[in-house]
Amino acid sequence: MSAPPFSRRRLLCGGLAAASLGHPFLRLHAQAMSRELFTLGVASGAPRPDGVVLWTRLAPDPLQGGGMGDAPVEVRWEVAQDEAFQRIVAKGKATAQAELAHSVHVEVKGLSPGRPYWYRFTADGVLSPAGRTRTAPADTDEGSQPVRFAFASCQQYEQGYFAAYRDMAAQPLDFVVHLGDYIYESSWGSRHVRRHQGGIPTQLAGFRDRYALYKTDPHLQAAHAAFPWLVTWDDHEVANDYTGDVSPRTADPAQFLAIRAAAYQAWYEHMPVPASMRPRGAGATIHGSHRFGRMLDVLLTDGRQYRSHHACLAGRSASPLADCPDRLAPERSFFGVAQEAWLARELAAPPARWTVLAQPTLLAEADRKRGAEHGYWMDGWDGYAAARTRLFDGLAAHRANGGNAIVVSGDVHAFWAADLRRDGQAPAVATEFVGGAITSEGPSAANVANMLAKNPHLRYGRGDKRGYALVTLDARGAAVEFRAVDDEKQADSGVQPMVRFGVERGAPGVHPQNT
């Protein structure tokens, strides 16, 4: 009998083949796969000046529930100042338990700010590959050095290979921001190059196996092992186009909340996040602020858990374009009342040189209907127009207080750059960049051209390329580069810079530099 499409044997061979690509973290991936405990790699996240979260999951049979049984396992960890682990500065023990799929989330403290560290785990006498992480600069750091990060989203496994992550892992970054759709619960699109295992997950075991499938990818593992990540979610971690406790796919809210609880649990088990983000039933608090010295504040948001239900299309998919008075209702909220209040407080606080608002989908208004009529996508910010106005008011006040805001977004499977204005004639309150998709199929050239023509504040758009974005911030300005995969259907595809933009401090707006 032939091997199943994602058998352990094939995964091992794939990992060893990936090592020939030469990147050090790809070689580490191959070593990990051969040891059959750390098959999902290692990761770090939520960097602070004095520490970071370290993550791994023990999974000798990753696509069949993990293969660890029910017994707890002691996992040792260590952090060093050097790649050879000659200068170990922190170490300890954690317990990998079946109730968390034998994952561990180690919150290391007592480290020095603004410097790299290396880390690794040991379990049952098996040594993990090493990962590299970096602490945030001290809160008082004046920011003499630039801050450089990548942001990405939307990585449908079947629609392409994760070549973008191979390229990302080779960049000199301080951290990575992932804006959601880390997994896809459903199969869709064309020209699939690999397959999901199983159908749409609705229970914890299915979500665990889906995360394991994605995390066996060597390029994704390489990017996790190279930098600390800040992560949020969008809809496909649970169900397409869900809003709060409602899913177009599941009519019974109680049944859907059980699905959401399982999905949130699996997300936590596979992300390098602190215990404060661990779900309690169907809820979890994942939004928060992250400071990188006096150079940068990152405001990481949750755009799914608390939002109002769709307007104009009650009980239907959010895909048809629509327009109706309900979408303008002042009580409608994208982030929910409590998170909106938190965000308003953050924007009103004394700012760092730069503020990055990390949120899931295109914030700029986007009239999408062809011709003279207006049509809006109800799952995007256009279905929450009053909430967007409140956010723009906060961004305007932030700018008046000396702040410089950049909005980074995902979800829509295209690259966009936009001036964010409260109306067509007003000055921009911030600049928005949407970083494409790692693999997920994008809109047609005709749809992109129509949106650019009908929405002049959309300064750049492209939907035929997959990839991610790089951001460099310093005391003078910001530089944003969109990087495009040559062909996501090819495992060894190259990645090239597609276009670069500049943003001046004190003068928000899109300034293309070259294409």
How does this model look, in words?
By secondary structure, the protein is an alpha+beta fold. 21% of the residues lie in helices and 28% in strands. The protein has nine helices and 22 strands. The chain has helices spanning 8-19, 24-35, 163-169, 204-215, 218-226, 253-270, 337-348, 385-400, 445-454; strands at 42-48, 51-57, 73-80, 88-96, 103-108, 116-123, 126-127, 131-134, 147-152, 175-178, 228-231, 288-292, 296-300, 354-361, 405-410, 415-421, 428-435, 458-462, 467-473, 477-485, 495-504, 507-514. Strands 5-2-1-11-10-9-19-20-21-22 form a ten-stranded mixed sheet. It has a seven-stranded mixed sheet with strand order 12-13-14-15-17-16-18. Strand 14, helix 8 and strand 15 form a beta-alpha-beta unit. Helix 2 crosses helix 5 (218-226) and helix 7 (337-348) runs parallel beside helix 8.
Short structural summary:
This protein is of the alpha+beta class.
Key features of this structure:
single chain, 515 residues, alpha+beta, ten-stranded mixed beta sheet, 9 helices, 22 strands, globular
How does the SSE layout of this entry go?
Blueprint: H1 8-19, H2 24-35, E1 42-48, E2 51-57, E3 73-80, E4 88-96, E5 103-108, E6 116-123, E7 126-127, E8 131-134, E9 147-152, H3 163-169, E10 175-178, H4 204-215, H5 218-226, E11 228-231, H6 253-270, E12 288-292, E13 296-300, H7 337-348, E14 354-361, H8 385-400, E15 405-410, E16 415-421, E17 428-435, H9 445-454, E18 458-462, E19 467-473, E20 477-485, E21 495-504, E22 507-514
